[in-house]
Specification:
8-stranded parallel beta sheet, 30% helix, globular, Arginase, Chain A, alpha/beta, single chain
Amino acid sequence: MTDPFFQPVSGFDLPRFAGVPTFMRLPLVENDHPRRKAVDIGLVGAPWDGGTTNRPGPRHGPRQLRDLSTMIRAQNGATGVRPFERANCADLGDVGPNPVDLQDSLKRMTAFYAGLKQERIRPLTAGGDHLCSLPILRALAVDGPLGLIHFDSHTDLYHSYFDGCLYTHGTPFRRAMEEGLLDPHRCVQIGIRGTAYDNEDRAFAQSAGIRVIAIEEFFARGVEDVMAEAREIAGEAPTYVSYDIDFVDPAYAPGTGTPEVGGPNSFQALQVARLLSGVNIVGADLVEVSPPFDASGGTAWLGVSILFEMLCAMVERPA
């Protein structure tokens, strides 16, 4: 049984529309908090979208995700997992970015997550655009390259944008490969689809040994078969999970900057996260929720539901 301090506020005790919203109604435990050393899994906001190349807005994602996450309850309705009884979970607040300096923001994020690594706290991050994954990987992969299970409609493996700009939300995993943060033979990308600039990203994936499962194969084989392969690719070694909300069809998740039609529905979006059970997850993120394009809040509600499924997978295999 976990420390009672880390139990979320119940809707039986305080209405979900009342109180100051934190991730999943967990206690806010920032740097100087006396219970900081007891945290096992920390939920973190990364309110930054300096790598966005088209429709902006993910910098506002963590705040909306926190608000919608007050609807999360204590037990997984499908699996029966009660994550807050298996690990001490807390809202660790936000990484403080520099909205006018991309490189400084990357350094700030790396330093923040390096601190969590040192404290042995596994991060579960709400972004932010997908470039946020790069500084997290820089902090977590200090002991050696990680595996990657990546849900997305884009590979994010392009070399550069705009005549040599190396750091955008379309390049984080190319940089991570170049920096030795990921083991390409333990990386799988699921759901890739849509029109393309060219074949450069796919060619890089093939040459590096990264497994790319396009949406056509995903639907032909089914969720369970694809996720069985993903777990096999990740193996037993430490693995990072990155989930771009545009993996989901925009009919179910319109609030994102680069939507692609023809994707999974909301049930399948939850199912792939649920089937991460057994993976040695050292950290995970949910990125690219953009509140300006999410008038009803439905995208954020799906996003926090996915975060909860990933949390359940994380607690099933303690660090």
